[in-house]
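Please discuss these two lines.
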Amino acid sequence: MATLGWNAFAQTQSFSWEQLRDRFQANNPTLRAAQISIDESRAQEITAYLRPNPDLTGAIDQINPFSTQTPPNGGSKEYAPFAYAFPAGSINYLHERGHKRELRRESAQKETEITVAQYADQERNLLFNLRSAFVQTLQQKAILDLTRENLAYYNHLLTVSNDRLKAGDIAKVDYQRLELQRVQYETDVQTATVNLRTAKIQLLMLLNDRTPVEQFDVAGAFDFPDQIRPREELRRLAMDSRPDLKAAMEAVDKAQTDHRLAIANGSVDPTFSLDFARNPPIPVYFGLSVSIPLRIFDRNQGEKLRTQQDITRNERLRDAAAAQVFSDVDSAYATMESNLTLLRPYRDTYLKEAVEVRDTVSFAYTRGGSSLLDFLQAQQDYRSTELNYLNLVGAYLTAAAQMNLAVGQEIIQ
């Protein structure tokens, strides 16, 4: 029973793209750290909206512990150190005018919105890395299957050629040349195996997963569609979805709020005070006061000017982010179009012709109707055509991931 349980546990797990994405969003340490920064920013909103603390002051003066003195009501001298003590206290409170608290909270909320957008942008870039590693894994799986199929096909032809050698139908040197070519197919298999393991390791790193490579696999369609959405539609989606552009737009709003806050900070904030004390023979008294700073020299001029300039700077950065959005979409679109232009004739013509030429020349060679050079060339052409096709499909899927990155959402699965 223990052996059966271990075998079941050690079975290879295969994940679709959706499953990988969910695991990535739940486990990637970089994303989890970025999520904490959002909570920290929300905590700053609480701090920004706090009221000023009142100041409480207490004092006692005129304590005489070193000599006797006449009591306040008259009579002979006596030792009364607190007879003429002067206790006093005051409480002060700064009243903020100009909606400073509200503006500080609004600025902190804008900062939180920027942090959320920056988190989404970081997730967008990391998802592109994950998608690229996923495509690379699918591509290397397809290449590994191709190399194994080529090796098996070539081994079959070697068996037929060995029979021809024994029958005296071909020369020994021709058979040896065929055997020497086999090392290339074995090398292709080993290279594809290593590349597949490397792609899986990259995926496991992004997932923060310690699963052995042998027990980890992915599943998905390694193919391409015939059509892509119009460029203008993709541009419009990108302008609505790109989190880095949203962060740039939120930065402009925050700069405008900070400028209003700088203007408010230039206003006068009065301090209200309540004083109370005992002054023998007066048992107790209290007083009220208001302190108003005279902002003759410092009216927060520098901060007002700085925040005004910061609005312009963030507007320029927003315009640059919008230009980058169009550039990213157009670049990815051009790459996808180029790949599709190459892939269609491969799918419709070249792959079929490569198979037909290989099978025809192989059939003719095994029956003595074709030369060894023609046979080897046909094998090489088939191998190159199939490999080029798989690489083109991988390039298209990577360009599709680049388009998702450019648009800011998964429009191409």
The mean pLDDT is 90. The beta strands are 13-15, 55-61, 86-94, 216-218, 271-279, 282-291. The first helix runs from residue 2 to 9.
